């Protein structure tokens, strides 16, 4: 039996679908995670891609806003996440072109679309909608730290954009296929666009962040799983705060560490090396025990998208032997991922 869905500022049915994915002018794939996430987990809602100087290719058809509208698109989604969630002024002309073609604009950025005067003026003139999904629901409480019924798993990371969302979605899908009661709980803009509900944790006032995580993963039947999408990293020089709030508020019974084995440093922070997976496990255990003394690590998820199959298999096998835990790439699947799912299901209610 599925538990109640937490409140969300935007519901999926309210969004103008299908989408044209806007890539801006980014050149680093790690910043296009919203576009890739929608392509991989909501492909039936994606018509094509478009940018204004981007070198990123999602594999979807490249279409102008007008071409996309003719093919059925009704919204353009900003498919990238810039540092700090700002919408650069150089994008505004392109977004106005999308409005003029008949598309509403959907954004998961921190900058509110309506705060950009030329964009707001164009939307009013054309009768189009500006929709922000990175808006937390009203009435979020302060965290209590009290235990709740149900089982929870949190994906944690060595960095941003290392597969926390993909891992959570893949685990939720696998548990559902085995007949388990499970909900994917979205904590970021891309997950909310995929699931149609959730809480954008990095947009919550700090005092209420742990309470928001509690609201995101409410009490449920003892056998029910909430698979919670993690954010940032406890080791991130800028975003560790939201990671800690999720850890304390979700009170996970289990966690999976997500890591990209060929990434040398924190994305966008070349002076900060990625922590070792062991460091992440130890710190997550130490801090997580504050609200759930029974917390445990059940495995590791590798993003091996930049490795060939043989190299990926070798690295995952070596890491599994080193840690004594299942290590898998949820996208590649296979026996390694089955072992990870089995480890999750072995956690007692």
UniProtKB/TrEMBL annotation:
Residues 142-334 form the D-glutamate N-acetyltransferase-like C-terminal domain. It comes from the Bacteria. Signal peptide: none annotated. Gene3D superfamilies: NAD(P)-binding Rossmann-like Domain, P-loop containing nucleotide triphosphate hydrolases. Residues 57-136 form the D-glutamate N-acetyltransferase-like N-terminal domain. This is DUF1611 domain-containing protein.
């Amino acid at each position: 039996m599925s538990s109640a869905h937490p409140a969300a500022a935007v519901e999926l049915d309210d969004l103008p679908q299908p989408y044209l994915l806007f890539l801006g002018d980014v050149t680093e794939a790690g910043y296009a995670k919203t576009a890739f996430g929608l392509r991989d987990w909501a492909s039936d809602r994606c018509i094509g891609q478009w940018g204004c100087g981007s070198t990123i290719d999602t594999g979807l058809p490249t279409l102008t806003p007008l071409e996309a509208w003719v093919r059925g698109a009704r919204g353009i989604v900003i498919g990238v996440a810039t540092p700090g969630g700002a919408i650069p002024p150089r994008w505004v002309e392109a977004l106005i072109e999308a409005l003029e073609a008949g598309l509403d604009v959907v954004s998961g950025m921190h900058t509110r679309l309506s705060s950009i005067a030329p964009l707001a003026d164009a939307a009013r003139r054309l009768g189009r909608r500006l929709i922000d999904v990175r808006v937390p629901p009203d009435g979020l409480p302060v965290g209590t730290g009290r235990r709740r019924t149900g089982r929870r798993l949190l994906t944690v990371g060595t960095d941003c954009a290392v597969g926390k969302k993909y891992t959570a979605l893949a685990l939720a899908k696998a548990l559902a296929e085995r007949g388990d009661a499970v909900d994917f709980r979205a904590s970021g803009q891309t997950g909310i666009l995929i699931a149609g509900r959730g809480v954008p944790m990095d947009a919550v006032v700090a005092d209420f962040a742990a309470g928001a995580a509690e609201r995101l993963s409410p009490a449920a039947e003892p056998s029910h799983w909430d698979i919670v999408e993690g954010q940032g990293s406890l080791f991130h020089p800028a975003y560790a705060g939201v990671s800690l709030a999720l850890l304390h508020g979700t009170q996970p019974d289990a966690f999976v560490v997500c890591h990209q084995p060929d990434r040398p440093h924190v994305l966008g922070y070349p002076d900060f090396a990625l922590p070792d997976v062991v460091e992440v496990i130890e710190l997550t255990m130490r801090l997580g025990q504050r609200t759930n003394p029974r917390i445990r690590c059940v495995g590791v998820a590798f993003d091996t998208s930049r490795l060939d199959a043989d190299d990926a298999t070798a690295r995952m096998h070596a890491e599994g032997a080193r840690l004594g835990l299942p290590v898998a790439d949820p996208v590649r699947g296979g026996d390694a991922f089955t072992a990870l799912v089995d480890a999750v299901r072995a956690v007692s209610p």
